[in-house]
Amino acid sequence: MRPDESFVGQPVRSLQTMLRVLAKDDPHQPTVVPDGIYGQETMGAVSAFQRQHDLPATGVADQNTWEKIVKAYDDALIRQGPAAPVQITMDPGKVFKKGENSPYLYLLQGMLKVLSQEYDNIDEPPSTGCLDLGTSEALAAFQLLAGLPPTGELDKVTWKYLASHFTQAADRQSRNC
């Protein structure tokens, strides 16, 4: 949702684009059409923003207003976009084997827990941070379902399949308590 490169050197259009994103995030913020013209609609949206943020409501995007709009815009993009992914860093060729401990294995066990609610052949593993027998067996069952060799060990290929299946399963299972 960031302005296109064509907006570089077009501060009014950039301002209007930011205000438009803010309007999607806040029902009290009037929306504007990014047309590059600093007209009444843009002045009204700037004034509304200024009032909401305890700034003098002049309708003029001075430096202080601009900086607060940029900050609010950046925050709105975070709220409106997808959650940041958690990426694990594994050395090339790294494979977590039975008996190993790692904070990443808590994530694995959490994903397997969700997948165990989707697939009858995956047993819920304990949450130990260790690639123990229960986790290894659940992982091997998942690998079999995914068409991977059922080693019960965690490598990058298995992680990629887990991440994809977990996201789909979690989206299906998301509901209110």
Q: Can you characterise this structure?
A:
The structure is a single chain. The chain has 177 residues and is mostly helical. The protein folds into two domains: 5-80, Orthogonal Bundle (Muramoyl-pentapeptide Carboxypeptidase, domain 1); 103-173, no CATH class. Helices cover 51% and strands 0% of the residues. It has six helices and no strands. Helix 1 packs across helix 3 (63-80), helix 4 (103-116) packs across helix 5 and helix 4 crosses helix 6.
User: Per the principal axes of the C-alpha atoms, what is the gross shape?
Assistant: elongated
Weakly predicted, low-confidence segments: none
Roughly how many Å apart are the termini? 32 Å
Calculate Rg over CA atoms. Answer: 24 Å
Helix content: 40-55%
Helix/strand-derived class? mainly alpha
CATH architecture term of the largest domain: Orthogonal Bundle
- Total separate domains: 2
The main sheet comes to: none
